[in-house]
TrEMBL record:
PROSITE patterns: ABC_TRANSPORTER_2. GO terms for molecular function: ATP binding; ATP hydrolysis activity. It comes from Obba rivulosa. Pfam families: ABC_tran. Keywords: ATP-binding, Hydrolase, Nucleotide-binding. This is P-loop containing nucleoside triphosphate hydrolase protein. Residues 10-238 form the ABC transporter domain. InterPro entries: AAA+_ATPase, ABC_transporter-like_ATP-bd, P-loop_NTPase. Transmembrane segments: none annotated. The keyword rRNA processing does not apply.
Amino acid sequence: MTAPDYEYEINVKNLTFSHSPDSPPSLDNISLALPKGSRTILVGANGAGKSTLLQILAGKRLILGEDTFVHIKGHDVFRNSPQGVTFLGTEWAMNPVVRGDIVVADFLNSVGGYRHAARRDVLLDLLDVDLDWHMHAISDGERRRVQLCMGLMAPWDVLLLDEVTVDLDVLVRDDLLKFLKADSEERGATILYATHIFDGLNAFPTHVAHMHLGTFTTQPTPWPFPPTNATSTRPPTLYEVALEWLRVDRAKRRELEKQGRKSRGARKDTVPLDSETFYKKYDYSH
């Protein structure tokens, strides 16, 4: 029996999205239903549509389709934006504003850190952030820690994460994941997390999903998975599952390339590109 829509914290139906009218869909008629308190890992190759999906859920891209249904906490994310939704993505660290000469303590206060002092202080300790850092003079990993502190210090109901642990060292990442898991369990909060780093993630998710070329090839499935064959008593690790899924994805894509899809990799054309012809003409290195 299918659960009613209101039982899902994140609920998507008939979602198709293209970045421009002339480009193929980045998301192709997908549906997604996640219960409150779930922690779902999105697995997929680069370009599978994970970031686009997260940005749409965060209300950062507008969908106009009449049949499209994108709800979080029972609210339409475009027409009645729900409160308590936090999106953290990688593009934040490239913003020139957060690379300016501003002290971290002042930066956090400018976004209301004083209103969430208890959670802010827990995160400052957990992420090992120095309040006297200057944002323009710290590393990408340290800047990422500040972003996480800023984004997580206000209690959230739904957390959308797009590769935000990529710059963290393994210790801080492990501490962060334990904090997020405990926070989710204690408050019944929901997490949807797209990542390519699967080490140390086995105990984190309640569900795992697989995207390929803008569609779900595996809908959110309870984790851990059972052993893969009758002779094994050990469940597969998330790393093993992801590696196998991505191998299959690449094989499928290469079959599609044989059928006319634009190919990747080295070009086999015998006629040189115009740019190659031009630069060869003025190449005096030999």
